[in-house]
Amino acid sequence: MKLFFTSIAKSFQDAFMVFLMWRERHIKEKTFVIILALLVGVLAGVAALVLKTLIHLISHALTSNINIDEGSLLYLIYPAVGILLTMLFVRYVVRDNISHGVTRVLYAISQNKSRLKRHNMYSSVIASSITIGFGGSVGAEGPIVYTGAAIGSNLGRVFRLSPRILMILVGCGAAAGIAGIFKAPIAGMLFTLEVLMLDL
């Protein structure tokens, strides 16, 4: 069985290499970057939708049976439980520091050739959904910027693009994340140009 899966993985890798060579011969880099930017934007928008939906579902599940006209001790307990669950998720599932979104993206751009780890495409969404859904006093901006940037970075790495193009895709992902979470596409673009300081 292991040999079967190994042969399938090898066949997929060979087919992908053929595609990469065909792409280099037939599709100009500028055109390909535009296609990837569109794909990154769609995926980051889906990530923003998933984040908002998870936050709403968790919050609704926890507070639907609480009478809003009366005080409840649960409003003090839920945030602490959310932080504990997030800490356990980061420590035992992710096993890496996911930190603050924007600062990690800036670090990746300046020091790591715009390379972000694969788990950043989902870990920030899950961790922040739990924290915010349980009533933690954090926002969705940092996590979705981090997630969108990670989607752009990893998609660019799959297609073996240069660090300069990776930086553009990281910016596209961050802008799309902001646009998706706040329904503000111009703000997403301006955020990327001003906060991430991309030289485009």
What does this protein structure show overall?
With 200 residues, this protein is mainly alpha-helical. The protein has a domain of 139 residues. 76% of the residues lie in helices and 0% in strands. α2 runs antiparallel to α6 and α3 packs antiparallel against α5. The longest helix has 35 residues. The termini are far apart.
Features:
mainly alpha; 8 helices; single chain; 200 residues; globular
Task: Detail the poorly predicted runs.
Answer: none
Please tell me what the overall shape is.
globular
Estimated share of beta-strand residues: under 5%
Instruction: Give me the secondary-structure category.
Output: mainly alpha
**Number of DSSP-assigned strands:** 0
Biggest beta sheet attributes = none
Helix content: over 70%
Order of secondary-structure elements? HHHHHHHH
From the N-terminal CA to the C-terminal CA, the straight-line distance is 49 Å
Distinct helical segment count: 8
Give the averaged pLDDT, no decimals.
87
Cα-based radius of gyration, to the nearest Å = 19 Å
